[in-house]
What we know:
The protein is mostly helical and 300 residues long. It is built from 14 helices and no strands.
Amino acid sequence: MLTNKHKSNTALPNLNFIKSAIIIFILLTAITEGQTTDFFTPQNRLNFGNHLFSEKDYLRAIGEFKSYLQTTNNDTIKFKMAFALSEMKRFQEAGDNFKGLFFISSLSEEAKFEFLKTNFLDEDSKTFRDIINNSPFLPEKYLQNINQLKQISLFKEENTLPDSNEISNLFSENEKIELIKFYLRKKNPEYKSQGTAALLSAIIPGLGKIYAGEIGDGITSFLFTGVLSFLAYDNFKANHDFRAWLFTGLAAWFYGGNIYGSAAAAQNYNAGIKFDFQNDLNIYLNSKNYFFPEYEFLDK
């Protein structure tokens, strides 16, 4: 059994611990009182926004830039905010923001070019060229870039060709070689004639599909039509009229479908040629960043 003396000795360390904790808390409170850091000052919002922008976290960067611009007028930050919108493919909003920098900013030339770029990236080639041809406010500093994009936009439309002389004048030697290759692919595409495919399959079933690149289907069409025709002939010869006419009908159906399918195969082949052209062109242009200029101030 514990005596009163033992009980008081046991309680004493707990009491001392509590007192020490209270003293430490009071000292820390006294030291930090009046020294609380405000993490949401305009400068901190700007620094964090620039960090998010460099990390391509454009949505959150825009939020920080908007907060900063509530207290400070800064054309560079307005430009970066518009640029972020363009990178997010919000081209209409980006263009409207760039317009606000056309005439009252040291970044007027850059803003005008970026406005044109939003129309180009929005896959509206005709509007892009109409603006170039009719606008009196083209940025002199970026005329070569604009004319490069104009020629590229002609590559992207189905029934237009760029000017080969302009390609030679606007691009470097290596770029010119690659773009001339695309020019020749577009000018002389290796299309297959739908009429020729249908005619070949009318002469020899399946031949039109082989011409259009569908070799397996062509051989299958030839075999099916040939076998059904033979069965029809064999049954007529054996006086099995019902089976003979049945196989005749099936052979005629396969024969007609083979002609139609050959024309469709040529159409699909041509669609593949167009797709491959645009895909290869986009891969090349992406590797060159579409010849867009780079701005050092975006990295600051």
